């Protein structure tokens, strides 16, 4: 871009142009015309005639070569604002180079090895929906039942437990928590119960004082014990062989290596004065159902005797809801599998 011209003599006319927001002063003879302005812009600013446009005041407006009236005297334009629009030869060359580079074919880079598609194990999804705990139920009358529900959910979703359930084809209609007060005597504490070979499994989740939860791995081991009662009732050699097998399978397939605390609660540490027992064998018969108190309060009768208030839950309800839940989980598994397959195909 040309530098500002030296001060004009009395016989010269100075004209100020605005180009790219900056003023440029050019000097001309007194009788110079619009055509001479164009030639000087080409010579001193390197803007070709074809690229030049002049916006002159409000009356003349836009002017560009070849002008309609190239004889207009520049002396009549001194007081007007003149904006020069146009690119220099260097600017045009640079722009064309960028355009050419952008459209040039690119050399292909090294071919990357194809990543194998992640196959969806549809059979596994279906089995996990079928072989599981269909209903989880904390005791609503104990403190913080939502915390117990999270504990039961963690047991249900434990990778080791899920693998063992699929392997042995265990489907349990109801997994619930046990009220410590109803299963504690001076001689022993019961940790779990299994009714009618897996119709209902109860687990002792809480401490005796209801102020915390027991160790997760201890409860999970109790659950393994109760799952073995789905096949064998008495504590005979058959039962213990299966129980130890399930424990080994759960530990082997627990890829997340569980065992952390739930809710940062304190854990029960037996003091040795009372013996802890998993149970007294799988129990059969009886009704895990609602009983009426005559005053509209719903009661739950458990294996240990005694009743506690709960929501509507009868044996028929348990089985019906379990069937509904299995069907629902099966549909969900099919939908998830289909979505995963569609995503792989895309």
Describe the structure.
It is rod-shaped, with a radius of gyration of 44 Å. The two termini are 55 Å apart. Residues 1-5, 258-274 and 287-313 have low confidence and may be disordered. The chain has two domains: 12-93, Phosphatidylinositol 3-kinase Catalytic Subunit, Chain A, domain 1 (Ubiquitin-like (UB roll), Roll); 123-345, no CATH class. Strand 9 (192-195) and strand 10 (200-203) form a beta hairpin. The protein is built from eight helices and 14 strands. It has 346 residues and is of the alpha/beta class. Helices cover 35% and strands 18% of the residues. The strands form four sheets. A five-stranded mixed beta sheet has the order 2-1-5-3-4, with helices on one face. Strands 6-7-10-9 form a four-stranded mixed beta sheet.
